[in-house]
Specification:
By secondary structure, this protein is α/β, with parallel strands linked by helices. Helix content is 43%, strand content 17%. A seven-stranded mixed β-sheet has the order 6-2-1-7-8-10-9. A three-stranded antiparallel β-sheet has the order 3-5-4.
């Protein structure tokens, strides 16, 4: 009779260290049940009878396919449209106006990066907010790029189909204007799908981060809370390099860049507190 698959304390520690090195995400002991359940699911899906066999595949598979599948299973993607809307208001009333005032003769596009993308509610929400509340959108070129480490959720974001819960905070006129009801779901307008570029990125991987540069605003909300202090600091330094001089970064309401890095200046706008890369920086 075959023994049931199990994750021992030693296995959990080995996996936790490995996953941290690959993603910057550190699972606390309190997440043990969550981690074990997903590891056992992947072991069953790959036909691995023991953790040792599965871990060998995870570490040495040349394609990295199983590692990506596991990352997809381990990452949390819980969000909705217009979450923490006050930062969108700050974007159109303060941050973009500040950037435009300093870049009066610069014809380069304004570039906004939303990371993590999750299923697309944030980048599409930014696009809708700009169209509805920023008159300059008809005069200036704006690019919206959105990235995530989870390739499954990126595919979902590209499809742009949402549950009633995801759109529950959208005003009814906007829901009618930008979505079509398809059965029990809401399909976002094709023009918005085409307006957002989705890419895979691991923000703790220097190679991935070198591919993402020259942004004017970064939205990175409720991601750094999953990292330890060292990973937070490294990610903040990568964001600093990814921003143009004068560029802004927006964190979640419970996060503070001041506790992570001294590279950024605190900007207190009427709508929100955000963080800015100094104009004189390179």
């Amino acid at each position: 009779m075959t023994e049931p698959r199990q994750i021992s304390d030693e296995d959990f520690q080995k996996f936790r260290e490995f996953f941290y090195r690959k993603t910057g995400i550190l699972f606390e002991d309190s997440k043990r049940y969550f981690v074990d359940k997903r590891l056992l699911d992947r072991m069953e899906a790959t036909g691995s009878e023991t953790f040792r066999a599965y871990f060998t595949t995870l570490r040495f598979q040349a394609s990295g396919e199983e590692l990506q599948s596991l990352i997809n299973a381990m990452t949390v993607n819980e969000t909705y449209f217009f979450r923490e809307e006050y930062q969108f208001e700050c974007l159109v009333k303060s941050m973009l106006e500040d950037l435009v005032a300093r870049r009066a003769t610069d014809s380069k596009p304004l570039r906004i990066w939303s990371v993590p993308s999750s299923s697309g509610e944030e980048p599409y929400g930014i696009a809708i907010y700009l169209l509805e509340h920023w008159p300059r959108i008809n005069q200036l070129d704006v690019e919206i790029i959105s990235s995530d480490i989870d390739t499954d959720i990126l595919a979902q974001a590209r499809r742009g189909r949402y549950s009633p819960r995801a759109v529950q905070h959208l005003p009814a006129p906007l829901l009618k204007k930008y979505f079509v009801r398809v059965g029990e779901f809401y399909q976002i307008d094709d023009s918005l799908r085409e307006a957002v570029q989705f890419t895979r990125a691991n923000v703790t991987d220097p190679a991935d981060m070198r591919l993402h540069r020259h942004f004017d605003v970064i939205f990175c909300r409720n991601l750094l809370i999953y990292f330890d202090d060292l990973s937070r600091k490294r990610t903040a330094e990568s964001f600093y390099d990814a921003l143009n001089p004068g560029g802004f970064i927006c964190l979640g309401h419970s996060e503070s860049m001041s506790r992570i890095s001294s590279l950024f200046q605190v900007r207190k706008f009427p709508e929100a507190i955000v963080y800015q890369k100094p104009w004189e920086a390179r």
